[in-house]
Design goal:
The complex is a heterodimer of chains A (about 280) and B (about 300). Chain A is mainly α and about 280 residues long. Chain A is built from eleven helices and no strands. Classes of the chains: A mainly alpha (about 280), B mainly alpha (about 300).
């Protein structure tokens, strides 16, 4: 009786934890395999523990070249997409103008279109225009599909912002540029940083669109795809694990900073909280 | 007038806030211009180019060039040749969606309503898989489902799987991979909806003698509808266009339409066929999406 009652109270949580386990399992496997010495090139099974893969992550130099290329592409695409997307977000949140809904549709559509369609259509464009495919066509494609996500992320931050802080600055004789630099930008910055991180991770991990627009250029996902046919070097799992650890670290740091800021605010005494009009 | 007159000597004139309005009529357009042009040129125009390519003369080739012959016959041709893969795409994506709903709804609900101070940590756990490479994660399933792996061994021991039965290279593996890969896209919007659900509504329902099932059907489910619709779309659109899971976890018998499109463009170099299939995929997805939105009745999602 007691057990059934306990189960009835907690079954949702138990199911949830099982599902989280399902989501976590492949990551644990990737981390485990990063310490594996495979028995053969095409084997995916755990064979023998070794630290070699971590000691020499670049033993297969093609792979590290591909990682470096992915980082370069991700960096350029992130900077361009973040600038373009942030400007658009400001226009959409701060201004009323003709053609707003059209712009909103233009931003929404890339997020709702299958990657396959975006990839093949860009390929069709580049081929018919005679543009040789390579590093820069990948960058163009990545900026294209990242912009919308940047707009949505920055928009959310801007919309939740208290306009009265800017009005207060203006009342205190800050000019528009000063208000923007000292008030608006610092307040929106977390949104912009989040958008940039999202854009980078989307770009770094993209396979489908890249695959159609890469020519002979090899990014990290392209390398993994090709290696899946010839046999995956275990160092791929080192990169996978390292990526995961870095991302987790960034999340941990940001939540720590958030908590410290909240505690500092608490110590500084009661501050009248601006009421948010959400 | 006396009210507005300076009451204190030396008071500064009021800041020129009013002067700002109307001055920058062009500003929003200038802010939008670079991004909008980028999207038009590299998203909008290519779609038109794809539509055009799908009507090219199929007898042309990449080296000799294609002639625009308005070959609408390309469409029935590709449907006839590849209807199994088309059907399979939507079948697998639909099956994976059902599985994802069964797994994702309790997860989103537990995080939103039951997790208390663990909420943020559990949310990070949902997003965490996306911290590492999609392809590397999918390859990890190859290890988990491997014929020599613990899972297959266990299932064979308890006779859920024949002694020579496999998990890898089966439709099961592909659907499992699809479910896994796109589950977070379903859970996050669902969570956002369920988080706003006032638990007092459920208390009220139970005060009024609603059973747990009734309260779920009449209160929780309707209130989570916006998140459910958004999550379903975010799951279904990439899942039906995916071909990575079918390629890595399946065999050509499990190939989805994406595999065919990939080989049409990159291996066989048959652009008209690839373009027609691509366009067909988009049209089919749009039809499913709009049909679904109409039935779900929450068109504000768009």
């Amino acid at each position: 009786m007691k057990l059934s009652r306990w189960l009835a109270d907690r079954w949702v949580m138990i199911v949830a934890l099982l599902v989280l386990g399902y989501l976590a399992l492949p990551i644990l496997v990737v981390a485990g395999l990063s310490f594996n010495r495979p028995s053969s090139r095409l084997s995916y099974d755990f064979n023998e523990f070794t630290l070699d893969n971590w000691r020499q992550p670049c033993a297969t130099s093609d792979m590290c070249d591909a990682v470096v290329r992915s980082v370069q592409i991700g960096f350029i695409a992130t900077v361009v997409a973040t600038v373009l997307g942030t400007l658009m977000a400001f226009a959409l949140v701060r201004h009323r103008f003709r053609g707003r809904s059209g712009v909103n549709v233009l931003i929404f559509l890339p997020m709702a279109t299958p990657e396959l369609v975006m990839g093949t259509s860009l390929l069709a464009l580049f081929v018919s225009a005679g543009v040789p495919q390579g590093f820069w066509t990948i960058v163009i494609a990545h900026v294209m599909f990242c912009v919308s996500f940047v707009v949505v992320t920055v928009k959310a931050r801007l919309a939740g912002m208290d306009r009265r802080l800017e009005e207060a600055a203006m009342d205190l004789y800050a000019n528009e540029w000063q208000t923007f630099r000292r008030i608006t930008l610092p307040l929106v910055l977390p949104g912009i940083v989040a958008a940039a991180l999202l854009a980078f991770s989307l770009s770094f991990d993209d396979f489908i669109i890249t695959n159609f627009n890469a020519g002979t250029t090899v990014t990290f996902p392209m390398y993994v795809w090709g290696a899946a046919q010839r046999g995956i070097p275990p160092q791929v799992n080192v990169i996978g694990t390292a990526m995961f650890a870095i991302a987790l670290l960034l999340v941990g740091l940001s939540s720590l900073r958030g908590r410290r800021a909240r505690r500092a605010a608490l110590l500084a005494g009661p501050v009248p909280q601006p009421r948010r009009s959400s | 007038m006396t009210l507005l007159a300076p009451s204190k000597p030396g008071q500064l004139p009021s800041p020129p806030r009013a002067a700002r309005s109307g001055r920058h009529r062009l500003l929003p357009y200038l802010l939008l211009l670079p991004g909008a042009v980028w999207l038009l040129v590299f998203f909008g125009v290519p779609l038109l180019q794809l539509a055009a390519a799908s009507l090219y003369d199929p007898s042309g080739s990449l080296s000799t060039g294609y002639a625009m012959t308005w070959a609408f016959g390309n469409y029935p041709d590709v449907v006839q040749a590849y209807w199994p893969q088309l059907l399979r795409s939507f079948g697998y994506a639909g099956l994976a969606l059902v599985l994802a709903l069964l797994l994702g709804y309790p997860l989103a609900y537990a995080i939103a309503q039951k997790a208390g101070r663990w909420k943020n940590l559990l949310l990070v756990c949902v997003v965490a898989p996306m911290f590492t490479s999609f392809l590397v994660r999918t390859l990890a399933w190859k290890t988990i489902l491997s014929d020599n792996g613990a899972l297959v061994g266990l299932l064979r021991d308890v006779h859920l799987l024949a002694p020579d039965g496999r998990l890898l290279a089966t439709p099961f593996a592909v659907v499992l991979g699809l479910t896994y890969n796109f589950l977070p896209f379903l859970v996050l919007p669902l969570y956002a909806s369920l988080e706003r659900l006032d638990p007092r509504l459920l208390e009220a329902a139970s005060d009024l003698y609603a059973s747990g099932v009734q309260a779920f059907r009449r209160v929780t489910l309707p209130l989570s509808m916006p998140g459910l619709v958004a999550g379903t779309l975010l799951f279904f659109i990439p899942a039906s266009g995916d071909y990575i899971n079918a390629e890595l976890l399946g065999t050509p018998n499990e190939y989805m339409i994406g595999n065919v499109i990939d080989s049409a463009f990159l291996v066989r170099l048959d652009y008209p066929q690839g373009a027609a299939l691509s366009f067909l995929l988009m049209a089919a997805i749009l039809a499913v999406v709009f049909g679904y939105l109409r039935r779900a009745g929450t068109e504000e999602v768009l």
